Amino acid sequence: MPHEPQIMKPEDFSHRAVEAALKIGLLFVLLNWCFHIAKPFINPLAWGVIIAVALYPLHQKLTAWLGEREKLSAALVTGLLLLIILGPCGILASIIGENVRELADSLQQNQLNIPPPPEKVAAWPLIGEPLFNFWQLAANNFGEAVKTFAPQLKQASKWLLTSGAMVIMAILQLLVSVIICGLLLLNGDSGHRLALAIGRRLVGSKGEEWTELCIATIRGVARGILGVALIQTVLAGVAFFLAGMPAAGLLTVFCLFLAVAQLPTFILILPSIVYVFSHQDTLTATVFMAWMLGVGAIDNVLKPILMGRGLDLPMAVVFIGAIGGMLFSGIIGLFVGAVVLALGYKLFLSWLKETYAGA
């Protein structure tokens, strides 16, 4: 006797539908709860993974050089990263603190002396005359100049306080990320196997290829964007300090921000050249100008070389993904955007190949 299909009764269907809805709802609540619990640690964890992926080849070489002592290698890499972060931060904090203390003492004692502007400043096109007048007013009567721009200075002080708090939080998050990076380096092999397993689970046979693509993209962005930004910042900072620029430490930090954000560093370089020409002799100013113009243009040479190395992708895809990701979700988007667009590009190519194969 043939097997007859069972007809589901309406009450059974309603019961199963309600049960499925409850399970889905509980699962959603659980996932949402887990997300909010882990939310404060998502950004440091993401940065820790990115730093670990970018530095893992160095960790492997150092481990082999130290006689396969993986823990010692991870400790050395983590310690070096902490030194790189804390060293400049400590120096910069000391410089800023000294400048602020001197400024506060001068204001309290009414001894803040601003040198008068050079006459050639008034001859600068567009901004020369108003800049000369304000500079002259500040040199002759600083209190009156402050009163004139009191609303703007009040807004600027609020922005500085907010920015300072954000910078402190960013440094603390970065320190936590470095510690997470060290822990991940200790378990690099198991982490790589986990990434491969997740890739295979998500996309099947292409899991390993796509996992390696994500790793290569992260390293390419780290080399091409962060690496070049650090090179530009170091070269610019050396020039700022040697040329005797005021607040050279702050200018160096601002240069790093511009370079990481992929904004043209000439926004900072050109005014600094103008300042040096107005305060230094011609030879010093000319050398400074040649050096800084080279610093501003060096990313056009290094970025294509470093970013595209080891990637089976057009550099335009990685670059657009990095910039678009940063505009969408901040600095972390440099990496997330590049990875997502790279995967989307590969998925599109795979779809095209299947289409042509079936035609």
Reconstruct the topology from this structure.
Blueprint: H1 10-65, H2 70-108, H3 128-140, H4 142-148, H5 150-186, H6 188-203, H7 207-242, H8 248-260, H9 266-279, H10 282-308, H11 315-329, H12 333-358
Helix pairs in contact: 1-2, 1-5, 1-7, 2-5, 3-4, 6-7, 7-8, 7-10, 7-12, 9-10, 11-12
Subcellular location: Cell membrane
InterPro entries: AI-2E-like
Family: Belongs to the autoinducer-2 exporter (AI-2E) (TC 2.A.86) family.
What percent of the residues sit in helical stretches (DSSP H or I)?
Answer: over 70%
- The portion of residues forming beta strands comes to under 5%
Q: Mean of residue pLDDT? A: 76
Distance between the termini: 46 Å
Backbone structural class: mainly alpha
Order of helices and strands: HHHHHHHHHHHH
CA radius of gyration: 28 Å
Shape: elongated
The helix count comes to 12
Keywords: Cell membrane, Membrane, Transmembrane, Transmembrane helix, Transport
Transmembrane segments: 20-38, 44-62, 74-96, 159-186, 225-243, 249-270, 282-298, 318-343
Membrane topology: Multi-pass membrane protein
Protein name: AI-2E family transporter
Q: How would you describe what is shown here?
A:
The protein is mainly α and 359 residues long. It folds into two domains: 42-186, no CATH class; 204-353. It is built from twelve helices and no strands. The chain has helices at 10-65, 70-108, 128-140, 142-148, 150-186, 188-203, 207-242, 248-260, 266-279, 282-308, 315-329, 333-358. Helix 1 (10-65) crosses helix 5 (150-186) and helix 6 (188-203) packs across helix 7.
Summarize this structure as a short list of keywords or feature phrases.
elongated, 359 residues, mainly alpha, AI-2E family transporter
